Amino acid sequence: MRLSTLRMAWRNLGRNRRRTGLALTSIAVGQIALLAMAGLMNDYTEKIVDVITGPLMGDVQMHVPEWRDERAMDMAIPDLASRLAEIQRDPAVKTAFARIYAPALAAPAEKAYVVVVTGVDPDAETREGGLIEGVAAKPGEGRVLFGRNAADRLGLKAGDEVVVVGQGADGIPADRRYVVAGIVTSSVDLVNRQGLIMSLSDAQAMFSLADQAHELVVRAKTREEADALAARLAASPRFKDLEILPWYEVVKGMKRMVDMMDYSVLFVLIFVFVAAVAGVANTMLMSTFERVREFGMLLALGSRPWRIVGMIFAEAAALGLLGAVVGTILGCALVGVTSWTGIDMAAWGGEAAKDFSFQGMRLPLLVYPWLKLSDVLVGVGAVTATSILSAVWPAAIAARLEPVEALRK
After folding, report:
1. Which of 205, 225, 249 is the last residue before a domain boundary?
2. Worst-scoring range by mean pLDDT, 18-32, 248-262, 297-311, 393-407?
3. Closest by CA position to 98, among listed 143, 66, 61
4. Is pLDDT above 50 for 129?
5. What is the number of other CB atoms lying within 10 angstroms of the CB of residue 244?
6. Both 119 and 170 in a single domain?
7. Among 32, 178, 180, 228, which is least packed by CB within 10 angstroms?
8. Do residues 377 and 74 make contact, with C-beta atoms less than 8 angstroms apart?
9. Which residues span the domain enclosing 91?
10. How far, CA to CA in Å, does 138 sit from each of 120, 182, 209, 212?
11. 243 and 359 fall within a common domain
């Protein structure tokens, strides 16, 4: 395409500045919306996956088949110590630990309340991403932790004594007296509302599960290794009697929610397409009809139709690209500011939103948006391509013009 054609195309955009400005505004607003949504979803999706794979799920889970459906006390994984040692020999494993789950009654005084006992490895679970991450008072040796809401309901505080009554895997009732070591607030809603956390060794002793556990939680060194790790463990003869699943197979509802967040960005991208098509097509169509006589004169003076078509496409591309660039600058600035200040979505829903949870997990409500290079390139590329496609109809009209008829209009 000749340089003179590009100059003419650029100059033509300034003929009707109001119309051009409206088209640029619609494209820029669409690009800003796309980048804002992409930045928000990038951080929110990552935080949700961290919540799922962090305190509760891990990257891979292992159970006795059908335990997840029946939750029977005697459906426990045997040979726990040797199996954990085998898992930790895999080079992709960051950490692996066991848990015991059991319903029980907690009686701080005369009344008893239903709780869910979780037996954990205190050293592993107080580390980053653990069920009781950062908790100073560890459970063990007759000391237990209570979830915030459960402790409030039972009227418990650190230092109080509580009797826990349950039934062992052998069917024999069991009761023990424990000291409340501390009250915890977890991202796992079940822990907050009904949670009683004791050490794995205490839980094994109380529920007659020596060297056994209901669940093995495995964390990979990187999230990308989780699928391959689950496949290797499932193929090992040592674990052929266990159900081994990556996290998204355990909580399929959460996986669908994460996928829907990706679709939300796609919906905004469609909005950007519509804004680009509406803005550019209208601008180019009106501009073409206004310049019919001018095109006729150019054709009469010897210009070829392809040059006029090229000029229209160049105008459309310039209009779309300019709108996308303006929108990208403003969108990146918006994301940059909110990535520093954060967005507190709990403030949108008031007090009720602060304990918002889904499938037993408290969802993150404070996000810090961020962008990937692909987010910017997708928007700019989509707008530019759509702008060029939007010029096909006006270009087709100009290509079919006859010089004599065009000069009469």
Report:
1. 249
2. 393-407
3. 61
4. yes
5. 21
6. yes
7. 228
8. no
9. 58-249
10. 10, 8, 21, 21
11. no
Same domain assignment for residues 280 and 372: yes
Judgement on whether residues 11 and 74 belong to the same structural domain of the protein:
no
Task: Label residue 293 by pLDDT band (50, 70, 90).
Answer: low
Same domain assignment for residues 164 and 267 = no
- Give the contacts of 114 (CB within 8 A, at least 6 positions apart): 103, 104, 105, 106, 194
Give the DSSP per-residue string, 89-126: TSTTEEEEEEEEEEEEEEESSS--EEEEEEEE-HHHHT
Instruction: Look up the pTM and report it.
Output: 0.69
Contact 60, 284 (CB under 8 A): no
C-beta neighbour count of 29 within 10 angstroms: 19
The type of residue at 274 is: V
Number of domains in the chain: 2
Q: What is the pLDDT of residue 28?
A: 85
3-state SS class at 62: strand
Contact 26, 275 (CB under 8 A): yes
Are residue 62 and residue 49 in the same domain, yes or no? Answer: no
My answer on whether 232 and 262 are in the same domain is: no
Q: Are residues 363 and 263 in the same domain?
A: yes
- Stretch among 14-18, 92-96, 171-175, 403-407 having the lowest mean pLDDT: 403-407
Last residue of some domain: 204, 229, 249? 249
In this structure, the dihedral spanned by the alpha carbons of residues 229, 232, 237 and 239, taken in order and rounded to 10 degrees, is 20
Helix 292-300, helix 305-341: angle, nearest 10: 130
Q: According to the model, what pLDDT value does residue 101 have? A: 94
